[in-house]
């Protein structure tokens, strides 16, 4: 068994595995070098050779326990025919959502568009750098993808005013998303992803009363499907506030927490394996402070199955030496 499986399946607490969200990305000079010559981010994700190289970059530098495939949650709307563009200093910008177009997409055309993603997974999964490690595939949660598809850019603190205006449109999109998310997960697993993480980055935007319709019901469906493929599923409902309720309803194999919740309370209330938590900004300070914060999480979760990770992705301005120090601190514990 891999270290991640020991923790997730066997509920081992002796060794703490570690990987980092956005471990392959802009804080690495070798990534920036590739990015410089590939201004179109979607095309980069669809370049089988380069995306597998980027996936492996952090594993060449650090003793991480998992790789995460270099792709993006917005590859799914792209596969459905909605335009997706990544603008410098702005983030993603999606084209107008055309229900007529996305309703006509069939499995074959979707899989054809995203084929390089699956081929890249296949290529990476056989690499020696992943020996005794896991390759993590991922998908955006239905709610977060709905947000991007309707809002068409990152919502920051709130949704556009008329977000819920067209309820029947929302219902139709959720049905389409359900089908293609399952297909996307299935093909990642078939090609070598051995764990799936579901990113619900905008879970924190919803009121309590809307959680059942937009988060609990559609996510549970996707989680159950992923479990049926016999791979563990990690959920990250960023900013959900009530992680306990979420876990009781969704029952993921692992819950990733953000940095705004108190880890001690989480450890007491939640009895499934936990991942993440530390504020990525800690990596922008100094080694002494980093060590203190890392040990804080390791101490709190010392008798709880725990995968070290952050409470959100590695920030672009992070010094790779700090990541190296972080990984070593966790491994030496
Ligand atoms: O974690 C990894 O290293 C694997 C690859 C990965 C990326 N995006 C690459 C990426 C993963 C798992 C994601 C998930 C993702 N993408 C999420 C969920 C996690 C989160 O951050 O909340 C979301 C919301 C997106 C959508 C997205 N993609 C945004 C908002 C942006 C722009 C802002 C940002 O954080 O960079 C992206 C672009 C993106 N996705 C980059 C990378 C490496 C930066 C691209 C660049 O070089 O400009």
Give me some keywords for this one.
333 residues; alpha/beta; seven-stranded parallel β-sheet; two-stranded antiparallel sheet; 14 helices; 9 strands; 47% helix
Distinct compounds present = coproporphyrinogen III
Give the mean pLDDT. Answer: 97
Distance between the amino and carboxyl termini: 21 Å
Runs in which pLDDT lies below 50 for 5 or more consecutive residues are none
% residues in beta strands = 5-15%
Rg result: 19 Å
Strand order of the largest sheet: 1-4-5-6-7-8-9
Main sheet: strands, sense, barrel: 7 strands, parallel
Shape assignment? globular
Describe the protein in words.
The protein is α/β, with parallel strands linked by helices. It contains 14 helices and nine strands. The chain has helices at 3-8, 29-36, 41-45, 48-61, 75-79, 99-104, 107-125, 142-151, 167-190, 211-228, 243-250, 263-269, 287-300, 320-332; strands at residues 66-68, 84-87, 91-94, 134-140, 195-200, 233-237, 254-257, 274-276, 306-307. The strands form two sheets. A seven-stranded parallel beta sheet has the order 1-4-5-6-7-8-9. Helix 4 runs parallel beside helix 7 and helix 7 (107-125) runs parallel beside helix 9 (167-190). It is globular. The mean pLDDT is 97. Bound molecules: coproporphyrinogen III. Residues 21-26, 35, 41, 68, 70-74, 86, 91-92, 138, 154, 199, 201, 313 line the site of coproporphyrinogen III (CP3).
What secondary-structure arrangement, pairings included, does this model have?
Elements: H1 3-8, H2 29-36, H3 41-45, H4 48-61, E1 66-68, H5 75-79, E2 84-87, E3 91-94, H6 99-104, H7 107-125, E4 134-140, H8 142-151, H9 167-190, E5 195-200, H10 211-228, E6 233-237, H11 243-250, E7 254-257, H12 263-269, E8 274-276, H13 287-300, E9 306-307, H14 320-332
Parallel strand pairs: 1-4, 4-5, 5-6, 6-7, 7-8, 8-9
Antiparallel strand pairs: 2-3
Helix pairs in contact: 4-7, 7-9, 8-9, 9-10, 13-14
Bound molecules: coproporphyrinogen III.
């Amino acid at each position: 068994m891999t270290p991640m499986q020991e923790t997730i399946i066997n509920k081992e607490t002796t060794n703490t595995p570690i990987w980092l969200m956005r471990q392959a990305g802009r804080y690495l000079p070798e990534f920036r070098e590739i990015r410089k010559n590939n201004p179109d981010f979607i095309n980069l994700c669809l370049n089988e050779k380069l995306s597998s190289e980027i996936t492996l970059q952090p594993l060449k530098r650090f003793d991480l326990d998992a790789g995460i495939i270099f792709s993006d949650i917005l590859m799914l709307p792209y596969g459905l025919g909605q335009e997706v563009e990544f603008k410098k200093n702005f983030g993603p910008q999606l084209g107008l959502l055309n229900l007529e177009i996305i309703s006509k997409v069939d499995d074959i055309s979707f899989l054809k568009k995203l084929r390089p993603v699956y081929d890249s997974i296949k290529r990476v999964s056989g690499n020696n750098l992943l020996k005794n490690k896991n390759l993590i595939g991922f998908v955006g949660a239905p709610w977060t993808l709905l947000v991007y598809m309707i809002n068409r850019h990152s919502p920051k603190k709130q949704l556009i005013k008329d977000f819920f205006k067209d309820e029947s449109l929302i219902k139709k999109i959720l049905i389409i998303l359900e089908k293609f998310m399952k297909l996307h997960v299935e093909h990642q697993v078939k090609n070598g992803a051995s764990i799936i993480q579901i990113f619900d980055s905008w879970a924190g935007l919803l009121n309590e009363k809307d959680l059942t319709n937009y988060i609990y019901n559609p996510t549970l469906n996707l989680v159950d499907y992923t479990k049926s493929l016999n791979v563990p599923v990690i959920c990250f409902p960023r900013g959900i506030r009530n992680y306990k309720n979420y876990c009781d309803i969704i029952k993921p194999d692992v819950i990733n927490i953000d940095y705004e919740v108190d880890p001690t309370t989480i450890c007491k209330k939640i009895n499934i394996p936990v991942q993440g938590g530390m504020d990525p900004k800690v990596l922008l300070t100094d080694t002494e402070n980093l060590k203190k914060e890392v040990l804080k999480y390791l101490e709190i979760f010392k008798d709880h199955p725990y995968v070290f990770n952050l409470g959100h992705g590695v920030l672009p301005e992070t010094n790779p030496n700090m990541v190296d120090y972080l990984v070593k601190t966790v491994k030496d514990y």
